[in-house]
């Protein structure tokens, strides 16, 4: 477990990257995304922030708070239903029109629903899209700006911060239904969770290999009391809130969660693949120190023993999952 003191010391050092770091928070209008954005604005010098979500009312309130927290920050809201890849593309275009580099991309848009398969008009299940395809589409679209950020260090020979963080469940990698990755025929909530989680870990490894200047982190937040239960009926909400209550001793406080996710997205131990592998650099999801993709638990330490990923790396499934993802993008967006 990384202590909160060490987390805060690391976050305080964010200022050493200099002013004008750019952070994009998809899911920044609530919960873990919002608390990570708050931590970013608190610690970074003159940051520029993009909060992506649907709720304009929430966004206005958060923007007001963040401006008070750091008057030198520039905070923007981009409205969109990002379960639709078309709206992901529109949001990315809006950001790319203003920014040449993006230092930190935090992906936490998601829902907790007990519904079965629920397709968007683009034919993807809404939950699987929010937890996997939509996040990968943001990542894929914004890779040029993430690479630019790495190349824009403030001192000669120094890399700039370039990092992607997907908040889901780094511990839960599980076997995939390989002939139905998008779960058209085999949808269940368990399969949806397994596919989103495992495909995130595999795709991040694949991207770390082809984009060695950027760090890729798949994080598990632990139990954090947020608004995640809001899209459920009142009985289900009651049950979920009761579960959170009963498990209170295990809950990670929301503000601490934001600090921990900022750490996961910015601490130099989660180094990009092409950086020097000195002491303190973490073991990557493939078991190799400093390999550029990391699985991080709620205690901010890396998660290991990922047998499922090992098999999928060896038999070529990792590459096929990324190819499948690109095929889905092509099918929907051309
Ligand atoms: N909280 C936990 O204990 C916990 C545990 C394990 C994993 N997780 C995972 O962590 C992630 C973040 O959860 P959280 O607890 O922070 O939830 P949250 O408080 O409900 O936040 C979810 C965010 O997703 C956005 N969102 C949802 N649907 C969207 C859509 N169609 N288009 C655009 N934005 C959308 C919401 O914004 P708008 O409402 O403005 O659209 C909000 O900003 C989720 O993927 C969740 O599965 C959470």
Describe this entry's structure for a reader.
By secondary structure, the protein is α/β, with parallel strands linked by helices. It has one domain (4-333): 3-Layer(aba) Sandwich (Rossmann fold), CATH 3.40.50. The protein has helices spanning 4-12, 31-43, 56-69, 85-98, 126-150, 189-210, 234-246, 254-266, 307-314, 317-333; strands spanning 22-26, 48-53, 74-79, 104-107, 163-167, 215-219, 293-296. A 7-stranded parallel β-sheet has the order 3-2-1-4-5-6-7, sandwiched between helices. Strand 5, helix 6 (189-210) and strand 6 (215-219) form a beta-alpha-beta unit. The termini are far apart. NADP nicotinamide-adenine-dinucleotide phosphate (NAP) binds next to helix 2 and helix 5.
Number of strands: 7
Strand order of the largest sheet: 3-2-1-4-5-6-7
Do you know the CATH topology?
Rossmann fold
Number of domains: 1
Order of helices and strands: HEHEHEHEHEHEHHEHH
Please tell me the CATH architecture by its name. 3-Layer(aba) Sandwich
CATH class: Alpha Beta
Summarize the structure.
This protein is of the alpha/beta class. The chain is about 45% helix and about 10% strand. The chain binds NADP nicotinamide-adenine-dinucleotide phosphate.
Topology at a glance:
Layout: H1 4-12, E1 22-26, H2 31-43, E2 48-53, H3 56-69, E3 74-79, H4 85-98, E4 104-107, H5 126-150, E5 163-167, H6 189-210, E6 215-219, H7 234-246, H8 254-266, E7 293-296, H9 307-314, H10 317-333
Parallel strand pairs: 1-2, 1-4, 2-3, 4-5, 5-6, 6-7
Helix pairs in contact: 1-8, 2-8, 4-5, 5-6, 6-10
The chain binds NADP nicotinamide-adenine-dinucleotide phosphate.
């Amino acid at each position: 477990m990384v202590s909160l003191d060490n987390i805060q010391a690391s976050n305080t050092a964010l200022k050493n990257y200099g002013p004008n770091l750019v952070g994009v928070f998809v899911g920044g209008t609530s919960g873990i995304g919002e608390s990570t954005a708050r931590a970013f604005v608190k610690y970074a010098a003159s940051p520029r922030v993009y909060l992506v979500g649907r709720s304009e009312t929430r966004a206005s309130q958060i923007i007001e708070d963040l401006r008070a927290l750091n008057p030198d920050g520039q905070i923007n809201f981009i409205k969109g239903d990002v379960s639709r890849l078309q709206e992901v593309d529109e949001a990315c275009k809006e950001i790319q029109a203003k920014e040449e580099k993006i230092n930190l991309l935090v992906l936490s848009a998601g829902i907790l629903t007990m519904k079965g398969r629920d397709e968007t008009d683009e034919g993807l299940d809404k939950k699987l899209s929010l937890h996997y395809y939509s996040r990968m589409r943001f990542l894929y679209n914004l890779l040029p700006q993430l690479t630019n950020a790495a190349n824009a260090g403030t001192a000669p020979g120094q890399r700039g911060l370039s990092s992607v963080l997907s908040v889901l469940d780094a511990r839960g990698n599980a076997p995939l239904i390989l002939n139905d990755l998008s779960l058209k025929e085999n949808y269940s909530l368990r399969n949806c969770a397994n596919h989103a989680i495992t495909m995130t870990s595999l795709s991040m490894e694949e991207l770390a290999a082809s984009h060695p200047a950027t760090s890729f982190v798949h994080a598990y937040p632990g139990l954090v009391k947020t608004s995640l239960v809001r899209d459920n009926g009142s009985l289900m909400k009651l049950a979920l809130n009761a579960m959170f209550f009963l498990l209170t001793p295990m809950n990670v406080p929301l503000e601490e969660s934001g600090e921990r996710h900022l750490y996961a997205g910015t601490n130099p131990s989660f180094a990009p693949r092409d950086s020097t592998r000195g002491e303190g650099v973490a073991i990557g999801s493939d078991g190799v120190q400093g390999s550029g993709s990391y699985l991080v638990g709620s205690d901010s330490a890396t998660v290991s023993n990922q047998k499922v990923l090992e098999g999928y790396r060896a038999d070529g499934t990792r590459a096929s999952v990324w190819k499948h993802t690109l095929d889905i993008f092509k099918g929907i967006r051309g």
